[in-house]
Amino acid sequence: MTSLRMAAAAAAFDRDLDGDFARIEGIIEQARAQGVGLLALPEACLGGYLADLGGGAEGPPPLTLDGAEIKRLTKLAGDMVVVAGYCEHDGDRLYNSAVCVNGDGVLGNHRKVHQPLSEDASYGAGQSFAAFDTPVGRLGTMICYDKAFPESARTLALDGAEIGVCISAWPGSRTNPAADLAEDRWKRRFDLFDRARALENQIVWLSANQSGTFGALRFVASAKVVDPGGEIISDTGVTEGLAVAELDVTHALETARRSMGHLRDRRPEAYPGLGGGEEELAATRY
């Protein structure tokens, strides 16, 4: 059995790319000192999130997947697998993207599919979810609002993802904010989605989030690691920090799926409107 130490960060980022990289370097050093092999950084950690969801304010700096900034991130990652959010520039479009890297280069890239609160005024939408192999296992990445849709994580689990990594810039409620962020209804939703997506797919789940404030947004932090039973095994709460946990991922998935296997016991023919078929069952190997 081989254990993997993994971590999810809650931290604040802004338009100062050099400052963001300095913060990322510090987080990576902190994680490396604890033996972390997989690290999730927040959505938009390279250049900050949108200050105005209506598209009226200056957005984060556009970066290319093969550009100098992503190469800089790969060098910082070294032997660690790191997932980080950035504003991807491709052709004449911008995308809210999550890149997965290590010292060898880019391992995967996901464009946010589901866009809340007029985010589509600033970004194009991604069109798919696909898992990919890394030195620490098969991952599936999502961004923020993606996790509100069960189909996102389920698609990745059926594609063999053992670990779901969701990076966010998830704020507290804007219409009815709680005085105590820990009691905010949007914070409760954030946690509920994390636990539900892990449990229903019986996968390990890493959830990173922005912390502090940016523009009018007050982020709920709450970075965490969730096991395949939906139990939170490490959590930063509503403050900046690093949630670290160690699991034998293969053993954890086998144990969770042994008696009631949620992927194995699916009946795709009973809900044809959701798509799927017998070929999907090949992914349910535990």
Automatic annotation (TrEMBL):
Source superkingdom: Bacteria
CN hydrolase domain boundaries: 4-249
CDD domains tied to this protein: nitrilase
GO terms assigned for molecular function: hydrolase activity, acting on carbon-nitrogen (but not peptide) bonds, in linear amides
PROSITE patterns, per database record: CN_HYDROLASE
Annotated region (Disordered), positions in chain: 266-286
The keyword Nucleotide-binding is annotated on this UniProt entry: no
Keyword annotations of the record: Hydrolase
SUPFAM superfamilies: Carbon-nitrogen hydrolase
Pfam families listed in its UniProt record: CN_hydrolase (PF00795)
Sequence ranges of Acidic residues compositional bias: 277-286
InterPro entries given in the database record: Aliph_Amidase/BUP, C-N_Hydrolase, C-N_Hydrolase_sf
Record's protein name: Carbon-nitrogen hydrolase family protein
Species in which this protein is naturally found: Amycolatopsis alkalitolerans
